[in-house]
Amino acid sequence: APQGSLLYLNALGAAFPRALAPHSTALLHWSPGCPRAPVGWLLPTLYCTPAPAGALPLRATALRVQLLFALRQRALHVLEAGLASELHDALAALRTEWPQLAQELALGRLSPQPGLPEGLRGQLQALLTPDAARASELRAECARGFEGIVRRLWPQLDVVVVGSAHGTERIYCDALRQADCQGLPFYCPFYQVAGALLGVNLWPEEPVPQFLLCPDWAFCEFLPCPTEEEPQTLLLDELWEGREYGLVVTAQPGEYRCCAGEVLKVTGFYKQCPLVEPVCRESQTLNVRGESISEERFCQSLCRALGMWPGARLIDYVCAESSLLGDSSGPCAPHYEVFVELQGLRDLSEGQRYKLDHCLQEDFPVYKSFRFKGSIGPLRLHLVGAGAFIRLREALGSPVPMPRVLREEQLLRLIQSSVIS
């Protein structure tokens, strides 16, 4: 919505005055089949990224081409990504392909790639010019390692803007803050659900995003949590600070009214409109015996177990219910199959693997009860090789956040093929 973009640009410019300089924003976002529609589309001169680069049919190719154009521009002030996972994957490509990227910068030549039609490659290459000095700088910085690489490559960078920083995307934001993007603030400007723009974050410098729900963007109703026997929906002016609500959305006049599957917490009010933080997605739960462990709370238990694995850093994970595997899950009771990618640790002992199951039992009494009765079997933890989750996101073929609880057998088999222990 134009109003949302104007509010975003006003908040961004107030917090980071250099952010609205022409061609000082690089975009990393895969939007197959359509030119980019970034949050700052009202000022297209902000971007140094060619619009067609994001519409390529293959996600990896689109992100790599956009990364190359971002590397050309040393004086970036804003690095923008549609999803935090897109920035994460683009920087993963930088780690493995920086020698070739440096060569392309030096020669001003775009290499042939899968999913890059020759005609479009020619159009994009016409925008490149040889830059030996920038190529040399890229080689020197990458040779030093990748901790804090973003600020070293773009020393004038002020902020990282991401389209989503909650739910499944939070893990990527945390990983980027700890490694590649050390010292940079992250700003998530909008809250969107089911294709509808519902709220805007007017405070770019705050570490935890909270969104102002705008009453005329969509018609929203709210169900108190926990759900009552005969719940009555509430309107914006009936919400209470500190309480949680399920979201019901009617995006536009004439569209269907639907439960969005999102739970929000009201954190306060701004000019009589509620400020909210996303809490969880109700659809992303583990539920082999009715225990209903949400994606967010499972992640908290996993991170607590991770603290008991010295030297390990979590890169990514998914979890699935064993019924999805059929007979190959073994004869034991239904259980969780957890796949994790770690950095700094090559293997886990049986005792370390049990830590996660133990944390779940401590955090969820219902799960502990089912484990004690034997109706839920021991959790199985698998380590997967580097890049397994990047391939999984490619296989999903959708520019939306990856589900953390897998429901599709085909995707589960793909991640199984990358198991190393």
UniProtKB/TrEMBL annotation:
InterPro entries: GH3, GH3_C, GH3_M
GO function terms (MF aspect): acid-amino acid ligase activity
Highest rank taxon of the organism: Eukaryota
Boundaries of every GH3 middle domain copy: 212-281
Domain GH3 C-terminal: 304-395
Positions in coiled-coil regions: none
GO cellular component, one term: cytoplasm
Matching PANTHER family: GH3 DOMAIN-CONTAINING PROTEIN
Protein's UniProt name: GHDC protein
Organism, as annotated: Sapayoa aenigma (broad-billed sapayoa)
